Amino acid sequence: MSRRSQGLSLAALSLLLAVVTVVPAAAQDDNRSTVSVSGEGRVTAPPDQAVVRFGVATRAETAGEARTQNARAAKTAMNAVRGLDVPEEKMRMERLRLQPRYEYNDEENRRELVGYEATRQVIVELGRLEVVPQLVADVVEGGANELDGIDYRLSDRSQLRNDALRKAAQAASEKARLLAATLDAQLGSVRTINEQSFDFVRPQPRLARTEMAKAGDAAQAEPDAYAAGEIEVSAQVQVTFDLLTGPDR
């Protein structure tokens, strides 16, 4: 065999030995025992913001009269909101909807036009939750006739989210340690962490959607109907740990 051929054979043999020694190490690492657990964390906090949506609906024989009455009632309702020192940028009126009204005539066996209805939604953002009952009562007197909903919120959700994630990770670690100790193993380092879910549960007042006349009476007689309660934040994570058993411990 020539010197060149011998050199090539030695190089090929060296490469083969390198492959043989590397593969088992990788395979051994991939086959290491693991334990995967999920953890859930929950935290609560009182909301510090509220978004109130109420509607102004007016009916008249003509479209123009329905629109005029609606504009007048909406303006009065907005002035009632201003009376609570709500900044202008925190309230707005949605686009006016104008549609015909029909009633069925049994004698003629057909629908007949009986007038028009104009509707508009007003949205108010509040940073003072204690004024919600008074707001509802005032806009009722101002001409609003439908409460479309109250949405309680947090101005800063990041801190609550981090607290829920932290609790979820701690719960997963405690669960993994319990399982490992029960099965006579030792918990190793973290391999993977996956956030599975994250949720904000907002409280809803008992009067979520109702006629404003009833809502106004409730606001005056039973302000607790608009109690904000607490916002619950939950998070769930999936964590995989190495599991040390036998001689690996």
3D structure, described in words:
The protein is α+β, with helices and mostly antiparallel strands. The chain has a domain of 133 residues: Protein of unknown function (DUF541), domain 2 (Alpha-Beta Plaits), CATH 3.30.70.2970. The chain is 37% helix and 37% strand. Strands 2, 3, 4, 5, 6 and 8 form a six-stranded antiparallel sheet that branches. A three-stranded antiparallel sheet has the order 1-9-7. β4 and β5 form a beta hairpin. α2 runs antiparallel to α3 and α3 crosses α5. The longest helix has 28 residues. It is elongated. About 10% of the residues have low confidence.
Give the count of helical stretches. Answer: 5
Sheet of most strands = 6 strands, antiparallel
Q: Tell me, what is the CATH class of one domain?
A: Alpha Beta
Low-confidence segments, given as residue ranges, are 4-8, 10-28
CATH structural fold name of one domain: Alpha-Beta Plaits
CATH architecture level-2 label of one domain: 2-Layer Sandwich
Rg of Cα set: 34 Å
The secondary structure category is alpha+beta
In CATH, the homologous superfamily of one domain goes by the name: Protein of unknown function (DUF541), domain 2
Helix content: 25-40%
Portion of residues in beta strands equals: 35-45%
| Mean pLDDT, all residues | 81
